[in-house]
Amino acid sequence: MRDLSAIVKAYDIRGVVGEQLDAEVARGIGAAFARLVDGPAVVIGHDMRESSPGLAEAFADGVTGQGVDVVNIGLASTDMLYFASGRLDRPGAMFTASHNPARYNGIKLCRAGAAPVGQDSGLAEIRASVEEGALAEAGTKGSVSTRNMLAEYAAYLHELVDLKNTRPLKIAVDAGNGMAGHTVPAVFEGLPVEVVPMYFELDGTFPNHEANPLDPKNLVDLQAKVREIGADAGVAFDGDADRCFVVDEKGDPVAPSAITALVAVRELAKEPGATIIHNLITSKAVPEIVAEHGGKPVRTRVGHSFIKARMAETGAIFGGEHSAHYYFRDFWRADSGMLAALHVLAALGEQNRPLSELMAAYSRYAASGEINSTVDDQVARMLAVKDAFAGREGVQVDELDGLTVELPDGSWFNLRPSNTEPLLRLNIEAPDADAVAALRDEVLAVVRG
Question: How far apart are CA 72 and CA 437, in angstroms?
Answer without folding.
Answer: 50
